[in-house]
Design a protein that fits this description.
Structural class of chain C: alpha+beta
Largest sheet of chain B: 7 strands, mixed
Number of strands of chain B: 35
Number of domains of chain C: 1
Strand order of the largest sheet of chain C: 10-1-12-11
Structural class of chain B: alpha/beta
CATH architecture of chain C: 2-Layer Sandwich
Number of helices of chain B: 25
CATH topology of chain C: Alpha-Beta Plaits
CATH architecture of the largest domain in chain B: 3-Layer(aba) Sandwich
Number of domains of chain B: 5
Mean pLDDT of chain B: 92
CATH class of the largest domain in chain B: Alpha Beta
Distance between the termini of chain C: 29 Å
Oligomer: heterotrimer
Number of strands of chain C: 12
Order of helices and strands of chain C: EHEEEEHEEHEEHEHEE
Strand content of chain B: 15-25%
Low-confidence stretches of chain C: none
Mean pLDDT of chain C: 96
Radius of gyration of chain B: 26 Å
Radius of gyration of chain C: 17 Å
CATH superfamily of the largest domain in chain B: Dimethylsulfoxide Reductase, domain 2
Strand order of the largest sheet of chain B: 9-8-21-20-19-10-11
Low-confidence stretches of chain B: 1-39
Helix content of chain B: 25-40%
Distance between the termini of chain B: 52 Å
Bound molecules: ligand MGD, iron/sulfur cluster, molybdenum atom
Number of helices of chain C: 5
CATH topology of the largest domain in chain B: Dimethylsulfoxide Reductase, domain 2
Chain lengths: ~400, ~800, ~190
């Protein structure tokens, strides 16, 4: 079977494929991937004990990184869909790259979650044999599986320049992705024991922040590609548009957050108010989520009226740090308020907000997966032509 | 059946513990089993297949609750409560449940051992039982044996002393002591309940039980039944507190779990209970609230006592200044108590001797109780009934050379100035200190120890260590490599209570019964029950020691001349009490009760009519005796003293310099110098003294003891939860973590007794927490020479 | 089939933890600070020595509530968590993927990870030990010194638990969450 027939790629030797364009980035990618592998090795030896998760805080950094990746994927899928699904010509130029990005980010996410779920093989079996249809995790997992399939098919058609079919699969992929993504929000939203997360906020918030993440990543990918040189006109045009959209999205997000916090504090629900007040006293919220994730990029957009696309690349890097904090805090905040509020051992302080700090193995796997994502990206950019779109379709 | 075995994860709180211990070093390797080297504690899930259920009795503490052991494939997988025993009322406490961990403790003593290192160093060599017995008789190059010592001491048997902790086989060991012929016997009494037993004994004629199932008003002072579990009191009581039939006044300087169940908690200044009781008595008498008919009939010296109270002015206002308890509370309590009497109980307590005046305190308590007429009656203090057992053969020869103590025990005699009266269990501290100070009447050279841990159980650990080092020969019979065992010359490993049948025992009370500990599984490793240990030992030493007696004892020489050696030896044959198996002895003991032996095998419990009367009435409740058959009253209220009276005024003890009537003295007043703290000690529901210190399951619940410090004081001193604190006094120091709490007074500290062992062979117990006895001074109570536990002022320092 | 529940005469509780030890020995629960199916919660005492508020120091024995409307069951992706024929909420270790979602969803902190199977475990009313042997008490109930616990069939009107619940006032924990616990605290 000729692979080339299924998906057109550039023929090159392995050596050519592996020679890096940028030594520093390559080094970072390799180091991170190595850390990932070491982390996995530690996990294989020690099992779940290698993680700092506890009875009170069963979800940790790996769940946060999984969410980080799948949100990135959904975001890139949305961004990519502007061009190839909805046919907005101005955005067509980023579609291939975005769709490719959405595939590698979700793969990285899966790489992380595979080592977080205690029994992935059992999962494959019983997800099918005894599906828990009331479980948001079941839907999220199943839909993301489908989504990945559709994204790959879409990408294949894109590479074959079969825009009609790409459009169909892109649309299906997008819809499934959005469904999967809102289910991921639902994973938290359905937790009626956890009042900070419970409700409709997270499903919608997830879609919104996915879009924001997608735009940040587009800036980063193009910023890297055209480092030290000006953007081509079509790219510049797309990016300028995205920057303006980003401004709007960030404004909405800030509005969302403000109301979440206000209703949290003044809503009069004891556990929720306490938790929100606690969150409002953390650096990771103000410096991570607000400053990096929203304010810095937003100010840049405002100041330049959405034109400083080169600077926006750096702002996007900062923005992604903020996005990371959003994911991490989301997971952590959900579990902040202890479900056991009484002392159960003689010599113990009464339970207060639950602490968690990731273990080395968790950090290695979680952050190491970024290396996997980078390597996949390098290989992708070499193998595939991610820039040229057919003139007509 | 698959027996699932779970390994312990060494996670305590968030602190990971590693287990290495000294188990890999050559000589100490003996403590761990080769196959199980480094093995860890485990729990075993019970199965659904075949199982053998053996009725037994718990020995994780002194209560002896009835248990049903589940045995699957030879493994004890579960201990369940045996519902048939009236004393333990179908329950097992946490320690009782954790008995399995004592059985399978990887640190257990497994083989006989003899010392090869320096005394106290803990270096031993594994030997056979025969070699161990031989070392006891003939010694080794490191220590002399009995033969040498007794020869040197001219057959003064008292040069060897015996000590034992409370337990069902303590009796077996004591039989050996009696045959051996020493005058020196020490047990837990002077560290535990001597003063309360004697105080009530001389006043009421017995140490009675409290009928907490029916009492309506209870003053519990200096006893903590929610944490210091005593059966059936603990079970009967807390179903009725909190407005459900029994009013509870808890008097304790600390806020305990018992206080949490109280209607009123009175934080008293330590050591001032006597003033409190005197004032209660004052109100009851002066306001004429007492039971006049009862006093008329059964009191001796009432008027003198009344005049005494009046002339000394023991008013509530007076007591308020001493105790810190408001006078109005004292009035109210005295009135309420007498209103509810005779269904009112001033709870006698168990561990006593908190202060020097304890004997007088217990007398005052007994008299106050009797004033309400609540003696030998439902809802009051009860004497109850006992089902007698048949005794079995013992030997108690007379050794002319053995120095006695009875004649010498008068106060003022050179070696015995530490107390007025020495009772059966001796005065541990007095005895130890005399030996240390060289004030004994004769040298003390050897010790046999059974199930007792002097290094942990007695104030001033430093002195105990010195004392043990001084002894030429120490033989310990224990199950664990305790701190005391580390000082042994010969270590004899007993099997745990689940591996032996012990002497059948009769339990008195309103619902008397007989119960037995049946062997659940065969002894593991090379361990044996004490009766078999003594059988082997006496077979080895009886004849050779008799030879020494023959040499020095003129009476014996004369006797032999008269009757011939064979006849005389029969009186000196130490092996006689141990000839029969425990099972045979037990059958004999209950042979007066038809069907008892069978019932004891099958149910572990026996009492007449059990088959008719014992019934399950609900998922949790059982009936043992019909109400009209319970022995609440056995003497119509008459005290058990020889006079049949409540003795208010004991003229005969005045001769020994003891107050004949409870009297408050200025020196009893509570004071703590600025910057110091009064040290209190006590129990916790999940630990038994030092006996459970290495129990992995219990350690999981409390990994180490913490020192209670008043929260505000801690804050001022910059001490936070978990900070390491050094506690010190003139006796010594210890370290443990801080627990700031409002449950204790600003000038007091407290920590649970039984932690902080130094034996490296104890994986879990080694240096976990602090040892209270390292800082408690060895103050002696003047009447019985008991250890005063709460008179030490300590300093604390963050380290 | 039965619908098992437990009534707790919680004012009897002296916080001795016999129940916790009995449960561990019966069910082979691992040792370790956060490994327990059952616990007693204690509120730190209010007030300043010597003026302490006695009533504030109450002991709350607790364990899995066997919710009739169990969030843990709802969120389980593989039906590892399920209701058995007696209404007992159980975990099938063969199906559990250790996603920990149920641990997050349980409002009562009733669940923990068993380190041998690396699956989620919790109180199962001794279903695979005592009940499987045909016994009618749980380990925690049988051992309790002050007889806090009454275990029985809520569907049987003549069972002791049904009678007690008819006769005595009782409450359940976090009722506003609609989990419908089958652990009842008797007043
Ligand atoms: N500071 C302070 N000191 C105290 C107390 C206190 O509250 N504070 N309490 C006092 C009281 S009330 C008492 S009763 C005493 C108790 O003091 P001890 O009588 O010494 O009792 P334990 O400390 O429990 O130590 C029991 C010893 O017996 C061993 N043992 C356990 N089971 C068996 C067995 O089956 N066979 C044999 N041969 N050995 C066994 C254990 O390993 C342990 O070494 O301590 C007293 N000392
Ligand atoms: N769980 C458990 N149960 C046990 C034991 C065990 O080790 N663990 N040991 C058993 C044995 S051997 C015994 S002797 C008993 C002991 O039973 P208890 O005597 O009831 O128990 P303790 O905790 O030793 O001491 C009782 C209380 O006296 C308080 N106290 C101290 N000083 C004073 C004072 O001056 N006045 C007053 N009013 N109170 C004071 C202490 O704070 C403590 O709470 O428990 C038996 N039951
Ligand atoms: S009170 Fe507990 S430790 Fe003591 S005998 Fe009874 S069950 Fe055993
Ligand atoms: S066994 Fe009973 S009294 Fe003890 S902690 Fe458990 S529920 Fe409370
Ligand atoms: S208490 Fe928790 S674990 Fe138990 S059934 Fe309810 S939600 Fe599930
Ligand atoms: S951890 Fe196991 S039991 Fe819990 S939700 Fe996941 S699969 Fe179900
Ligand atoms: S019912 Fe059984 S499994 Fe549940 S807590 Fe009690 S003893 Fe443990
Ligand atoms: Mo004791």
């Amino acid at each position: 079977m000729d692979l080339q027939k299924i998906i057109p790629y550039k023929k090159m030797s392995l050596k050519e494929l592996l020679v890096p364009e940028n030594k520093l980035m390559a080094l970072i990618a390799v180091v991170l991937t190595t850390l990932f592998l070491i982390g996995v090795a530690i996990y294989l030896v020690h099992g779940h004990h290698a993680y700092a998760v506890t009875r009170e805080h069963p979800w940790g950094l790996l769940i946060a990184m999984y969410i980080f990746f799948v949100v990135s994927s959904t975001g890139l899928c949305i961004v990519g869909s502007f061009g190839d699904v909805f046919g907005f010509k101005d955005y067509m130029v980023v579609s291939k790259r975005a769709i490719f990005g959405s595939i590698i980010t979700i793969l990285s996410g899966f790489a992380v979650i595979a080592f977080e779920i205690g029994h992935p093989v059992t999962m494959m079996i019983y997800n099918v044999l005894s599906p828990g249809l009331t479980s948001a995790i079941w839907w999220m997992g199943t839909l993301y599986g489908l989504y990945l399939t559709f994204m790959i098919i879409e990408f294949i058609f894109l590479m074959r320049n079969d825009m009609a079919r790409a459009k169909i699969f892109g649309l299906i992929g997008l819809l499934v992705g959005l469904a999967a993504h809102s289910n991921l929000g639902g994973v938290f939203g359905f937790l009626n024991a956890r009042v900070v997360s419970n409700g409709v906020f997270y499903p919608t918030y997830f879609i919104l922040t996915a879009f924001i993440t997608g735009i940040y990543l587009i800036f980063i990918m193009y910023g890297y590609k055209y480092r030290g040189q000006p953007f081509p006109d079509d790219v510049a045009k797309a990016l300028t548009n995205f920057m303006k959209i980003q401004g709007l999205l960030l404004a909405i997000l800030m509005f969302f957050e403000t109301w979440k916090m206000l209703t949290g504090v003044y809503g009069g629900m004891p556990e929720r108010a306490d938790t929100i007040i606690h969150i409002l006293h953390t650096k990771s919220f103000w410096l991570g989520e607000v400053l990096c994730g929203m304010v810095i990029p937003f100010l840049l957009i405002l100041k330049s009226k959405g034109t400083a696309i080169k600077q926006m690349v750096w702002a996007s890097v900062i923005g992604m740090v903020g996005i990371f904090y959003m994911r991490y805090d989301l997971v952590h905040d959900t579990q902040l308020f202890p479900m056991q509020t009484l002392k159960i051992r003689e010599y113990q302080l009464p339970p207060s907000f639950v602490d968690y700090f990731p273990s080395t193995a968790e950090m290695m796997i979680g952050f190491g997966a970024i290396g996997i994502c980078m390597i996949l990206y390098f290989i992708g950019t070499k193998l595939f032509d991610l820039d040229h779109m057919p003139e007509h379709h | 059946m698959a027996v699932e075995v779970s390994r312990r994860r060494f996670l305590q709180g968030s602190v990971a513990m590693t287990v290495i211990g000294g188990m890999s070093m050559a000589p100490s390797d003996l403590f761990s089993n080769e196959e199980e080297h480094g093995s860890q504690a485990m729990t075993t899930k019970t199965g659904t297949g075949e199982a053998k259920i053996v009725p037994t009795l718990c020995e994780m503490c002194v209560n002896k609750c009835a248990a049903l052991a589940r045995v699957e494939n030879g493994v004890v997988t579960k201990l369940d409560p045996n519902p048939m025993f009236p004393k333990s009322r179908n329950m097992l406490c946490p320690r009782g449940n954790a008995g399995i961990q004592a059985l399978y403790d990887p640190d257990r003593l497994k083989y006989p051992m003899i010392r090869v290192g320096e005394k106290g160093e803990g270096k031993f060599k594994r030997v056979s039982w025969e070699e161990a017995y031989d070392a006891i008789l003939n010694g080794t190059d490191k220590f002399p044996g009995l033969a040498k010592i007794l020869d040197e001491e001219k057959d003064n048997r008292s040069t060897i002393f015996f000590c034992a902790g409370e337990g069902m086989a303590e009796h077996t060991f004591k039989t050996f002591f009696n045959g051996f012929g020493s005058a020196n016997w020490l047990n837990h009494a002077s560290l535990c309940l001597r003063t309360v037993v004697s105080g009530y004994g001389v006043t009421l004629g017995a140490y009675p039980q409290a009928d907490l199932e029916n009492a309506e008003y209870i003053i519990m002072a200096g006893a903590n039944r929610a944490e210091a579990i005593v059966t059936p009191d603990t079970m009967d009581f807390f179903k009725r507190t909190k407005g459900r039939g029994a009013k509870l006044i808890c008097v304790d300087p600390r806020f305990t779990n018992t206080a949490a169940k109280a209607d009123k908690w009175l934080p008293i200044k330590p050591g001032t209970d006597l003033a409190f009781v005197l004032a209660l008595t004052y109100v009851a008498i002066m306001e004429e609230l007492y039971d006049k008919a009862y006093v008329e009939k059964y009191f001796d010296g009432f008027t003198q006592y009344k005049n005494h109270l009046y002339s000394e002015g023991y008013t509530p206002e007076w007591a308020e200044k001493i105790t810190g308890i408001p006078a109005k509370d004292i009035y109210e309590i005295a009135r309420d108590f007498m209103k509810h009497a005779p269904k009112a109980v001033y709870y006698p307590g168990r561990r006593s001797t908190f202060a020097k005046n304890d004997f007088q305190l217990r007398r005052a308590m007994a008299i106050f109780q009797a004033l309400g007429g609540g003696i030998d009656t439902k809802g009051g203090l009860v004497f109850g009934k006992k089902l007698p057992l048949k005794p079995h053969a013992t030997v108690a020869p007379m050794y002319a050379q053995a120095e006695g103590i009875d004649v010498e025990r008068a106060k003022g005699h050179p070696g015995y100035s530490d107390c007025a009266i020495v009772s059966g269990g001796g005065s541990w501290i007095g005895f130890r200190n005399r030996v240390l100070e060289g004030k004994g009447l004769y040298p003390i050279r050897g010790m046999f120890l059974y199930k007792h841990n002097p290094m942990m159980n007695m104030p001033n650990t430093k002195k105990t260590a010195e004392f043990l080092k001084k002894l030429d020969l120490i033989v310990t019979i224990d199950t664990m490599p305790s701190d005391t065992v580390m000082y042994a010359d010969v270590v004899l490993p007993e099997c745990t209570y689940l591996e032996r049948t012990d002497p059948v025992k009769t339990f008195g009370g309103p619902e008397p019964s007989i119960a037995v500990r049946n062997k659940v599984i065969d002894p593991m490793y090379e361990t044996k029950p004490v009766i078999e240990i003594l059988r082997g030992l006496t077979e080895k030493i009886s004849k050779p020691l008799f030879e020494i007696t023959k040499k020095y004892d003129e009476d014996v020489q004369d006797d032999i001349a008269d009757r011939g050696e064979e006849e005389v030896y029969k009186d000196f044959d130490l092996t006689i009490p141990f000839k029969h198996s425990q099972e045979e002895l037990n059958e004999h003991a209950v042979s007066d009760y038809p069907g008892a032996a069978e019932a004891l095998k099958e149910h572990g419990v026996y009492y007449p009519n059990m088959d008719k009367w014992f019934k399950k009435v609900s998922v949790n409740e059982h009936v043992y005796y019909p109400d009209d058959k319970k022995a609440y009253t056995v003497r119509g209220g008459k005290p058990k003293t020889p006079s049949g009276k409540v003795m208010c005024n004991l003229k005969n003890i005045a001769k020994k310099g003891v107050d004949p009537m409870p009297t408050w003295r200025k020196e009893y007043e509570y004071s703590v110098p600025e910057g110091k703290f009064r040290m209190l000690t006590g129990r916790h529901a999940q630990f038994t003294q030092s006996g459970t210190s290495n129990n992995a399951m219990l350690h999981d619940l409390i990994n180490e003891n913490y020192i209670w410090i008043n929260k505000r004081v801690a804050k001022k001193m910059g001490i936070k939860f978990g900070d390491m604190i050094e506690v010190s006094s003139e006796a010594g120091s210890t370290r443990l973590k801080a627990y700031p709490t409002e449950k204790i007074a600003p000038d007091q500290v407290f920590f649970i007794h039984g932690f902080g062992e130094e034996s490296e062979e104890l994986t879990w117990a080694y240096r976990s927490g602090g040892n209270d006895n390292a800082v408690i001074k060895d103050d002696i109570e003047p009447v019985y020479g008991a250890a005063v536990m709460h008179s030490t002022n300590v300093e604390i320092r963050k380290v | 089939m039965a619908r098992y529940g437990m009534a707790l005469d919680y004012k009897n509780c002296i916080n001795c933890k016999a129940c916790e030890v009995a449960c561990k020995e019966e069910n082979g629960v691992l040792l370790g600070a956060d490994k327990h199916r059952i616990w007693v919660g204690v509120k730190e005492i209010e007030g300043e020595y010597p003026l302490l508020n006695i009533a504030s120091n109450t002991f709350y024995p607790s364990q899995c509530q066997h919710c009739d409307n169990a969030p843990c069951e709802e969120v389980c992706p593989t039906h590892a968590t399920h209701y058995d024929e007696n209404g007992v909420v159980r975990v099938d270790p063969n199906k559990c993927i250790l996603c920990s979602y149920c641990m997050n969803a349980c409002p009562y902190d009733a669940r923990y990870v068993d380190d041998r199977t690396m699956t989620v475990d919790k109180c199962n009313f001794c279903s695979d030990t005592r009940l499987a042997r045909g016994e009618t008490t749980t380990a925690c109930q049988a051992t309790c010194p002050t007889k806090v616990r009454i275990f029985g069939d809520l569907d049987d009107p003549n069972s002791e638990i049904s009678q007690v619940l008819r006769e005595r006032e009782h409450f359940s924990l976090k009722p506003h969450l609609g989990t419908k616990p089958k652990l009842f605290y008797l007043m």
